[in-house]
Amino acid sequence: MTPAIAFDRIPRDRLPALLQRMPKAELHIHIEGSLEPELIFALAQRNGLTLAYPSVEALRAAYAFTDLQSFLDIYYAGASVLLHEQDFFDMAWAYFQKAAADHVVHAELFFDPQTHTERGVDIGVVIRGLHRACQQAQAELGVSASLILCFLRHLSEEAAFDTLEAALPYRELFIGVGLDSSEVGHPPEKFARVFAKCRALGLHVVAHAGEEGPPAYIHAALDVLQVERIDHGVRSVEDPALMQRLAANRVPLTVCPLSNVKLCVYRTMADHQLPALLSAGLCAMVNSDDPAYFGGYMNDNFLATFDGLPQLGAREAWQLAANSFEASFVPAAQKAVWQAELDRVFADAAA
Ligand SMILES: Nc1ncnc2[nH]cnc12
Ligand SMILES: [Zn+2]
User: Is the pTM for the entire model greater than 0.80?
Assistant: First the structure.
């Protein structure tokens, strides 16, 4: 329910400061996608590895993507510098410091264990390093955080089962599972059985769908995998019945605007369908996806989105932050605390 905030009294020139100051949750961040070129080079040096690029600048210059796969190739190569528990901690800690500065009060981090276990890194090294950063984020920054283990969909369901089994000793350190990597050609049905097992274990379940893949993949993620949220889901606008279904059930879409432009899902931000999703009543919100690769973190995403889409105003800013809390996997009492803080920020701005 929208509270009695006079959104119309908030002038547009005050929006950037409000977007930055408002509390928000980030629900779609691949922690390996927060690895900045500077940290890639520092970790390569610490671990005695040689990179395919001669400098930070040369690596950054290679970040010109034409589609999802062109990004994934370079993203997996970047993650190859992560070997030790401290490497995973350092990566996540760098993210949390940026998140705190952006007034992210809660983050649910995706991680891709198969990217690391395929290189001989033990899954316990990955999870323990990330978990320690989550604990320190709460203790030192007041940012609450949890982990979501993603299966790589270009690999087999059997490999996903093996990954789940290897992760079970750490069951208490992650809250759910997701599905990411190359979407087209790897529909949700491929992972039906492993997701059923995850649900039976009491894990939350989410999946990337409708980023590059068709609306049918979103239907399948809901019907077959029984996911609680759809990651991206922007291609739902092509299917009016699906839009109605998502709105009626308040199925969250974790939308990533800068990612969609960088990966050429949309030509420009002005073409992004976020306004259509919001005006159809969907529970969409803004996220950064892979901030080190796509040009920015949470507030960069909010600022670029509102800059490119002038039809979005203070009401939509409030709605996006409210949706991020509604869609998070935290207890209702905690959501209410953040929501009250959000309402206060907007009520003050409108006063
Ligand atoms: N945007 C994205 N889509 C699918 N898999 C990913 N892995 C990291 N970022 C991703
Ligand atoms: Zn993603």
Answer: yes
